[in-house]
Amino acid sequence: MLSVPTGTVSWWKHEDLAKRGQLPGRKRSTCPICYDDQLNKPAYSYLLGLYLGDGHIIQPKQHRAPNLAVTCDNSWPGVMDEVEQAMRDVLPNSTPCRVRRKGCKDVKVYSMHLPCLFPQHGPGKKHDRPIVLAPWQQDIVAAHPWHLLRGLIHSDGCRIVNWATRTVNGVVRRHEYPRYFFTNKSTDIIGIFTDTLDTVGVQWKAAHRTNGAVNISIARRASVALMDQHIGPKY
Known about the structure:
Layout: H1 6-19, H2 41-54, E1 55-58, E2 67-73, H3 77-90, E3 97-101, E4 104-110, H4 114-117, H5 135-143, H6 145-156, E5 157-168, E6 171-184, H7 187-200, E7 205-208, E8 214-218, H8 221-230
Antiparallel strand pairs: 1-2, 2-4, 3-4, 5-6, 6-8, 7-8
Helix pairs in contact: 2-3, 2-5, 2-6, 5-6, 6-7
């Protein structure tokens, strides 16, 4: 009677069934915000760190689901496995995938509720807009700070071994010492990182780069030992 296309009516029915979780043959995406679903909080804290460090959410036009992509270097297959497992733990009804790129892979997961889980999502680069944790995210980070730090280090950080030489009684000796680095252009993300380091008792120093990034260095022996205990090198 109204000349509404059959495909449009079918899409309306599909969307209605999806909202009620009644699509045949598939489960709705979980969401602690919309449906009060249980959330794996340690895994979410880790995934939040990955997103803040080197992740991004793409929200396509039309009716496609947004996707969270975390770019992982092929040199660290263990990290890639951890990223994928965290996505499975946070979104158990969604299936992550890996997209090959030159020298790396994008680990992706699709869900209509990614903007709910990561309210920091928005247009443009993260360092060009405010990044503030919601109260419920702050509670999770406070309860699981090392998971957040691990995600941030696994994305935009590293553990390296520095060395120096000095001559003692005519003998040149080489001294090696490990340290951690985290680099980001967002002052808000740097603040989240350093505030969390303070809560777990890790000492740090900041250095500003000419490209606008801030480099956080962790070199004190006790702090490096604490980081090694909870994070360790990428693998």
